[in-house]
Structure formats: structure tokens, C-alpha cells
Protein 1
Amino acid sequence: MLYPLMFRPITKQMIWGSESWDISCRPNEMGIIENGPCAGETFEAYIARNPEAVLGTHLTACEKFPLLVKLIDARESLSVQVHPDDAYARAKGEADSGKSEMWYVIKPPDEGHLIIGLKPGTTREMLTAAYQNGTVEQYLNRLPVQAGDIVNIPAGLIHALTAGVVVAEVQQNSDITYRLYDYNRVGVDGKPRQLHVEDALAVIDFDERIHKKVVEASATPKNGSETIMPIISCEHFTIHKYTLSEPLSESSDPEAFCIFTCVEGSVTIESKCAITELSAGRSAFMPAAMGNYIIRPHGHATLLRSSPASPICPHVHNI
């Protein structure tokens, strides 16, 4: 049965706040379908019954499900961290792949900025010395953000969410994080949290090849009934931003699935087999061979459409 799938959120309480894993297919964080005829089935079992129809013709040979979608609520700042690319993770013998990700800012941070990258001119030697003498914070680049902004965070870009921010996150299906600095906090066991300084320094982009910028909320016009705007396209995922105030009809892409994450307002997704209600902060998985569907916004709504790699944007129909 091919229809828009929603999953029971996997909630994780952290010392800095909480995460809700909305779309996850991992052995220890396996999504359980919560809607429609397949409710109660694991995501893994659902895929296994018909991989080509669920994942798409271009993804049937992939070793694991490629994406992970979360909602993150940071009451306090997260550790200053960085993720490796696939090559470094493989060379280290990590169980996961590398990790590139993106953030959509649902609620801006208390102080109006996120930590994205290092200040220009920072070298590995300078950051190593700063770690040793406790002055890491003076080298961190603070990037102003507001609600609706999007930040691309490829592997190698040092980053941290700051207190008060709520973001939707789309990432490679990996849980590798190298912490460089954690504000001298202790974990629930009362001991300092583990750092991964050597690995972090090995993968950080000191050459400033990665841009430290946002796709601003104002970049998407809201005066029309519908806007579909490409936001990010990389080797791991493609993100489109949908701004809707009228129904939109599309067809799924048989080459690859997609995921809709509602970040503002709410919508109803109507397919041949089911009607799915999608509210802000929730995601729906759209099987590749599902066929035609209609997205009906309840007033104004904003969605992120995430796809693995760079499949064709779905065909839009007039209705």
C-alpha cells in the first residue's frame, strides 16, 4: 500500500534540550508507521516488501536508507561540533557514513545567532592552542539568523545551535558527531562530556572552502498562491521550499522518494489510498511509486521537500 507515511516521533531528551526524530530507519531508532493501513509496521519491513516502489528505481541498491529528519528544540546551546565526510568516516572505520545536514530555523535563537564556521584566518594551530588554553569561543563565527532562514552545513563545517532555537534538520542518515568544545559542561553522570578533539581538528574546514551563509526567509516571495524554490542541492540531498496558499497537485518521482516536512501552518495531503494531515513540525514520507497527490494548505503553509541526491522535481499539475 503506497501512501504518505507518518511515523511515531522518536523523542530524545538531551542535557541541552530535546530532539524528535520524525523520519528514521536505523536499527536502534526504527520508525514505526502511525497512520493508515500499515500502522504499527516498522519502516524497515515496509521498505523490504517492495524496495523499488518505496525508495525508487535509483535507490534499490543503496545499503541503507539515506536520510534522517529531525526537529530539534535547544533550550541551551549545543556543543561546538563538526561532522566528517564519507571518506574520513570510512577511513576511521566508523559504523556510519559521513554527515552533511541543513537547518530550517522555525524559532530564532535567544541571542539571534548560530555558530557557523570559524572566524576568517583561523588556523589549525590557532584553534589547537585555543582548545588547550580554554579560548575556543573567541574563534567561532556567529551567524545572525531569523525565523524561516535556512543554513547548509556540509561535512567539515564547524557549527552549534544556540539557546532558544528550534530547527527542522535534514541530514545524511548518520549519527557521527565530533565535539571540539562543550562549555565545560558535565553529562548526566556528573563527568565532563566526551570530546573528540583530534578527529574534529582533522576534518574542520580551515581552508574556508565552505560558505558560511544563510538562505534568508525573504528570498521566497509570499505574494503568490504557490512558490516552489530550490534551496540546497548537494551529493547527499536536494531541498525545495514550498510556499502555498492554494491546493497544489503533483506526481511522485518513480526514481526516488521524497519527504515533506511542514515548518509553518498545516496541510492535508490527498493520495489515491489515504488522506494525511500534516501539521507544523511533522514530516510525511512519500513513496516513489505512489503516483498523483494533492497538497491542500489550511490557509498559508510552508513545507520543505527533501529528496536523496538530485532527483527531478515532481511534475506540478494545475487543479
Protein 2
Amino acid sequence: MAPQARVGLDVALRKFPARLKEKKVGVLCHSASVTSSLTHIVDALRDSGRCTVSAIFGPQHGLFGQTQDNMVEWEGATHPTLGIPVYSLYGAHRKPSLQMLAGLDALVVDLQDVGARPYTYVWTVKHCMEACAEAGIPVWVFDRPNPISGADFDGPLLSPEFFSFVGGAEIPLCHRLTMGEMAQFVKAQYVPTVDLHVVWMDGWCRDSLWNETGCPWVLPSPNMPTFETAMVYPGQVLLEATNLSEGRGTTRPFELFGAPYIQPEKFRAALKRFRVPGMVLRDHDFIPTFQKWRGEHCRGFQIHVTSPRRYRPVFTTAAIIAAAIETSGGQCAFKAPPYEYETVKIPFDILAGDARLRQRLESGRFSEETGKEWRDERADFIRTFREFTQYPEKAA
């Protein structure tokens, strides 16, 4: 087994950054912000005695993953033992106010991302970088693995006119960057005045998958229970913008999908022509306990990724939607706004990157050629990506 990667938090605790010593810091964190021994960052920094945690900020789903479903806001409070403010950045505020940042010497960011553009944590970080640039406060990012970076890039780029809280940079749906690298990318492209510092990991290489890092998996959000969930998420998140269930309300969200109108045999026949690589679909019906089709029997499947490095999560889900549209007799549909604070644009379009994929799916023009066009479209991004890479593709 490969040696365990050391996340940025572990690195920082072993050799604490001099410029954070004896400083009053705010910490942007969540349930997965833990050391290799599963100590939460707030407790680890407090126990270290090297700085003072003066405020805590939490992203979507709350500080400890308490808000189960999408688009459920939460309110801040006072930390029960430290007596310091806990600020919600998924409610009345998504960007810290100057009042929230008052008195802080730095903001420390420690969030576990999953390598998919619509996962909102990185856009919370972008908002924090903007606020800290305005307030003159440095930002420190403690880096963590991209759990699916061993898989290839996939999906179209996001067009700037479709920027939203599920996408704030011109990157593909499956992007291979870590949170620290993404912060550097955001600084270079959008927030050049922020004073940014990154504590990089030790012993991590980009072509690894989470189960090869030796790091413990902690749910970064309520519907991301396993590394296998993260593998399919960059594509399956698109189902949120359709009336297909993405498995919310089951114990295997995003891996399971379906709807009462799915006809398994017809669906399989339609999907077969797309020659989707790296996975097997297994019939698996379910009855969601919440969200779409709550309490109704959904005919569906579980995605089993058999070859992660060949698997194409976005192409796979686009093919799934195409097959559902073809075989549902008009019952498969795209959802209308609102979605994640966007009240005008179609939810699928802001997730996909623009309107083109939806239009192709609706007209029956989605094909393997679409995937080739995405590869051509990503060429400039991949050149830019190489400017921000901090980790080798393979272990030395």
C-alpha cells in the first residue's frame, strides 16, 4: 500500500506557519476538516496553543453536516464551548461581511472538496477570498486531496454568462484540481489582490484515488457518504436539474438513480449505443424517503464504477438522460428555476455550463461526438491547469 498522504492540516500542525503564530484567526471548515487521527480543526488549533480561533465560518450543509437536503439554509450561532461566533455562509450571507471579519488577523480555510465544479464549497472560498481582499486579511488554505483526481477531465467548460453559486470559474465539471490549487487559480483569474497562502500536502500524487491515499473518509456533505459517491457525482449532479431521482432519500445517493416511469429493458437498450466505458449498471429499485418521488416506487439502477481511470462521469450521466428521454414517452423532463439562488436561468444549464447540452439532449442529438467536442474545448483549460499544479502525476 502507498504511504499515507498528509493533508495540509497535518502539515501545518507539524510545522506551524510562522505568520499564523499568536494570531486571531477565523476558520472556514466543516465536518470533514479533520486531522489524520480524526481531530477536528477547531479542536486541533485550540489544543495546539499556537493561534487563537476567534470565529468559525461554515459552508452549505452547516458546520457539521446538519442540513440534509439541497437549498436548505442554516443560521449561525455561538460555539457551545469556545463562546465565539459561528457564522453561516449559506443563508442570509454567502460572502462574509466586514463585521464578521472584524478583529481577525487571518482566515484559515480547510474544506474537503470532491473535484466537481457544482460542489459549492470552492465558491464559498471564492466569496471569502473576495471579502478578505476587501478587508486586507490574508487567506490560508490547508490543502486536501481531490478524491477523484486519478480520473480524467470530463464535461464542458462553464461559460461566464452562466456563473452561479454552483460554478464561478471557467473550468470543466470534472477538473482534477485540489482546493489549494483552485484557490490559486481563482486568485490569478478573478481575485488578484487577495493575500493567499497555501499549506500543501505531503506524499500525495495527482493520479491517486481517495482509496489509495490512506486518509480516512469523512462525509464532506450529507449526501456524499463514500468515495464511490464522489466518483459518480460530477455527472450525476446533473440529475438534480431533471425529474429523474439522483437517489436522494436513499442510502446510496448519486450512485442510485431512477423514476417511476423508467422501463429498465428499453432504457438499457437505448443506453447501450453510447458505449459508456468503465462502469456496470445493476438493476436496483428504490423508494425515496425525501426529495423527488418521495414514497413512490422508482425503477432504477446503481452505477458500479469498475474502471475508475476509464470512467467518464459526465458523459455517462448525459447518456443516461438521453436514454431516459428516448424511452420515457415524454415523461423525463428538465426542472424550472429556482435552483441554488438562480431564479432565471434553467437549472440544468447552470450545472452543465451553458444551454448546449440540454438542447442536444432534448433534440436527440447527443452522441459520442459531444464528448470529443468537450475534449477539444478543454484544451486551453488544461494548459492553464498545468500552471497551477503543485503535485506530481505519479509517486516518485
Protein 3
Amino acid sequence: MDLVFNIAKGRTAEKVADGGNLIVVLLKAAQADGVLRDHTTLAALLAATGNTEANFTNYSRKTIANAALVLTVDNTNDRTRLDTADLSWASAGGTTNNSLVKALVCEDVGGADTSRVPLLAYDYPYVTSGTALPLVFHASGLLQIT
């Protein structure tokens, strides 16, 4: 994980524990991390100059259902870990390809971008070519809070 959005600091694990689903949004252009982290909704982030959502062939946002999330409290090492299975887009690109730069994880509240809260962003330099597109989360999971 490369950054936690300012609005999400201290609440990501809490939101997941409360039962919210997460969505993954891929960007083919993104502002610098210091600017990106200040957006409070996905709609505001996508409306800002310099941020462009992916549009490669067979792209769609991925949902991570709460049931697929694993929240582990590690008292021995004084940390909490949030994890889920890695994701994949089959036949990503081919006709329309993208050079991707970021993968965002957003809290899906209310089903509209104006109420979706960006939580995490990962650097994701990947060029689509019509083959499977893997999104492999770090061995420590989506997020580790220490």
C-alpha cells in the first residue's frame, strides 16, 4: 500500500468491521500522492484534473464483499491486518489498452461515487494487452496498521 487517504486514516479497519463492501477502481492517470490523498469522495477524485479511470477492454470495477475480507488482530506484534484474495481481470485490454498507474480501494457507501470514500491507493504500473490482469496485494494484506 502506498498511501492511506486522509479521510480514511484511523477508520479503514473500523469501516470494514462494520460490514461495508469495498470496490477496486483502476486509474490510468493520477495526481501526485500528496494531492491525491486529500480527496474525500471517489466522485471528487475522478473529477479532479489529472485523475482518469481505466477504460480498457473488459474493464469493470471489482467489488470485495465484506464476507471476503479477513480482519486479524495480532496482539503479539501489536498490529491489525486487513486482507482479501488477490483480484484478476480476464482478457484485460486487447482492443483498447491502458497504461495503469494506481489501484484504489474505496468504501462502497450508497452505491454512488459521490458517497464512495477512497481508503487506500497502490502504485500499479501495468500495461494491458488482452491477457489476464492480476492485482496481487502485498504479503501483509490490503492494509496493516501498526
